[in-house]
Amino acid sequence: MTGNGRYFDEMHNADGSVREAYSDYCRWFHEQKTSLLKRKHAEAETNFRKTGITFNVYGQDEAEERLIPFDMVPRVITANEWRRLTRGIEQRVRALNAFMHDLYHRQEIIRAGRIPERLFRDNAAWLPNMVGFRPPGGVYTHIVGIDLVRTGPDEFFVLEDNARTPSGVSYMLENRETMMAMFPELFMRMGIESVSDYPRRLAKSLAACAPSCSDGKPVVAVLTPGIYNSAYFEHAFLADQMGAELVEGTDLRVVDGRVAMRTTSGYQPVDVIYRRVDDDYLDPMTFNEDSVLGVPGIMDVYRAGKITIANAPGTGVADDKAIYSFMPEIVEFYTGEKPLLPNVETHRCAEEESCKYVLDNLAELVVKEVHGSGGYGMLIGPTSSKKTIEEFRKKIIARPENYIAQPTLALSTCPIFTRQGLAPRHVDLRPFVLVSPDRIDITPGGLTRVALKPGSLVVNSSQGGGTKDTWVLKD
Amino acid sequence: MLGRTANGLFWMFRYLERAENTARLLDAGLRMALTRDIATAEEEWRSVLATTGQRAGYEAKNGTYTGMQAWNYILRDRDNPKSVLAMFGQVRHNARLVRNAITTELWEAINESWLLMKDQLARPVGENRVLETVATVRRAGTLAHGAMAGSMLREEGYHFARAGTFIERADSVARILDVKYYLLLPSLSYVGSSLDTGQWDQVLRSVSGDRAFRWLNAGQIDARGICEFLILDDRFPRSLAFCHAALRENLAALARLHGQEGDCHALMRDADTRLSSLGIDEIFDQGLHEFLIEFMSCNAAIADAIARDFRFLA
Fold first, then answer.
1. Residues A80 and A121 both lie in one domain
2. N or C: which end of chain A has fewer CB within 10 A?
3. Is position A245 within any domain?
4. In terms of residue numbers, what domain contains A334?
């Protein structure tokens, strides 16, 4: 099995030989009986269902818990490749935090004319409440997921920065557990970096950002919108693994100027909240007054420096795709270095010339809504009908500033296991990054998402994509 | 521990006990129905539905009592919020709510039982599958209690879970006795008749007490003996005395962990005093029905006090 040459194949070279990263794995794979592999494949699914690793589909009842399809062929990354990636990610995350701080303080980057002011003025995630406020430890985005795609041996691109509330880390951990249970001999044979201490690192990183009023061991809680949220499993899983409380808005209340949770023996202060609730729902007194998911008054406590909210409110600004298009400038401005990880070439429809180019080349481009996420509101030119393309054309002309466009990338492929054997499918990669006041910690691995339909470029789980375990090899 | 989590654990185990007791009653009813003619079997199904509080709902939907209709209503009817399937759905819902307060063993025991049960109850259950389905529900309870005993920290959470179990078990045993004694017998002239004896046998079976009772009483069955066994014999794990002794221990453990007692402890002491001062003769003199009604309301008051004392709700 080889790729068809148009796309970089993670497992094979252009001549069909096996790439170095996969040499041990492929040798092992060919020693296995196909019938055994098929059985293991079925076992994996049963295991996921048994352990209840599901995500809920919005607007459907509990009966509609779905499994994210799991593929048992790992995506393998060499130690060298990983070193290069982490340097680039670290640089980018450092720049992101410096950018957030600048944006909510002196706005040097705007004064310097490196990015236009409208970028945050028009940004729905911009929070005036954060202006002039320094979050505890100076950290804005404590947990970041950087989405990467690959197009060649040395070509990795950043597709998206998830600085608001990146999800998927529980799949990284459970995929690894499943692989270790199914194929222990592979782990004995190959040197694979461990990912399993992520929860401990997360707990430590969050505790390091505790406010100064915290005495002794900081109390950390995970704030979930509740059992019907699509990522509830992940929230419960992380709280469990960190030994933290899993709280809902109704468990919290402001008591004596602190945020406190209702325990069986009364209200107890919380120091750090890892929130999986959007800004808009965080505080009905400040934001959406109809929301019951948040905590009335939490923003006042926050501004008084008595609680850490991770990620900081207002960080969603950086998730915006228009900001993304300026990331090369942002990285250079704050680090004084060229970006180690390039962006995908991005055309901003807000700019007249770019817009004209986009409209002239719609059939070849991927068009995204500036504030969209999860694969919604996208146009994938090459696989769309004329009618869809014309509909998008009208939308872009009506509100050009709402769209960006990128070339259709030749995303790398990695084989998945099918009834007929291995078959190439497009993948991306989301490494997880933890930021504390004194360090940036990147777990060696991440979530590899894989499009399950042949030829499809859409890897989002909400659109039927699956996941794979990601192996970073030791030197 | 969060008050909401304590509430979730308490109710997770109440629903687990309720689902299991419903299945046990169904089991007993089924065995009785199998040994009777159609007319009397109808009585058995009526009593099973009455005991589980599902009679009105059943009759609103069905004109007649047939076994197949009755057990499908009890096991899986969508219109029946007290069906075994609905109860177990509540168990799993609560288990998800408190996922980070229970062990993986316990979660997987619940989740696997739920998947199996959902599968077995996906279609109407015929004669050849009903006992198997009932066994699945009973086994789910055994698995969950076993997983908890073997893996959960003896902390607050454990004691809330156990308190939920014994509050519910005491309530359902009291209810079974009450229905039998107060409602089932058409008139006093039936006392000691084969119908009466058969019903007592069913009561014992529904709490898995038939074997134990025979062992202790050399095979003799009589109403007084059975009531004494199910109310006062603290060796039997489903008697009212046993349930309250276990509940007392769990509440005492909670008081130790919290360093103080609440209303629930005072109510528990009152209940203990009342139960230990009574012999079976006094209970019969007072009237079994009256005794049971008082016991149930006292049991419910303890449950309410637990919820208040430990801030289950905002």
1. yes
2. C
3. no
4. 20-211+307-341+409-472
Using the Cβ of B50 and the Cβ atoms of chain A, whether some distance falls under 8 Å is answered with: no
Rg (CA), chain B: 19
Domain end residue (candidates: A407, A441, A459):
A407
- A45 touching chain B per CB within 8 A: no
**Subunit contact B2:A263, Cβ cutoff 8 A:** yes
Window B:55-94, CB contacts with A under 8 Å: 89, 93
On whether any CB of chain B is under 8 Å from the CB of A295, the answer is no
A122 and A159 both lie in a single domain:
yes
Measured distance CA(B60)–CA(B58) in Å, rounded: 5
Q: Averaged over A309-313, what is the pLDDT? A: 96
A143 with A49, same domain? Answer: yes
Record: contact A52-B258, CB cut-off 8 A: no
Q: Chain B contact for A232, CB < 8 A?
A: yes
- Which pLDDT score, from 0 to 100, does residue B304 have? 98
Average confidence score pLDDT of chain B: 91
**Which of A51, A232, A261 comes nearest B2 by C-beta?**
A261
Q: Is residue A7 part of a domain?
A: no
pLDDT of residue B189: 60
CB-based contact, A46 to chain B, within 8 Å: no
* A126 and A180, same domain (yes or no): yes
Question: Where is the domain boundary, A407, A428, A458?
Answer: A407
Residue of A nearest to B108 (CA): A51
**For the ranges A73-87, A203-217, A289-303, A360-374, the one whose mean pLDDT is highest:** A73-87
Q: What is the pLDDT of residue A67?
A: 81
Residues A316 and A379 in one domain: no
Residue of chain A whose alpha carbon sits nearest to that of B105: A51
Residues 6+ apart with CB under 8 A from A448: A75, A414, A427, A428, A429, A430, A467, A468, A469, A470
A266 vs B contacts (CB less than 8 Å): 311
* Same-domain check for residues A403 and A423: no
- A311 prior amide bond cis, ω within 30: yes
Task: Give me the percent of chain A exceeding a pLDDT of 90.
Answer: 73
Give the minimum alpha-carbon distance from B114 to chain A in angstroms, rounded to a whole number: 10
pTM over 0.80: yes
Burial class (CB in 10 A: 0-12, 13-18, 19+), B7: buried
* Two tokens, residue A379: 């146009």
* Element of type H or E holding B304: helix B288-309
Residue A160 bridge partners (DSSP): A147
pLDDT at residue A3 tops 50: no
pLDDT digits (tens, 9 = 90+) for B20-49: 999 998 988 888 787 777 666 788 888 889
Residues A109 and A169 grouped into a single domain: yes
The pLDDT value given to residue A5? 62
pLDDT in tens, A445-467: 999 999 988 888 888 776 778 99
pLDDT at position A60 is: 46
Whether residues A311 and A384 share a domain: the answer is no
Q: How far is CA B33 from CA A194, B130, B180, in A?
A: 60, 13, 16
* Average pLDDT across chain A, whole number: 91
Residues of A (233-272) whose Cβ lies below 8 Å from B: 233, 236-237, 239-240, 245-248, 250-251, 261-266
Which residues in chain B touch residue A265, judged by CB atoms under 8 angstroms apart? 258, 310
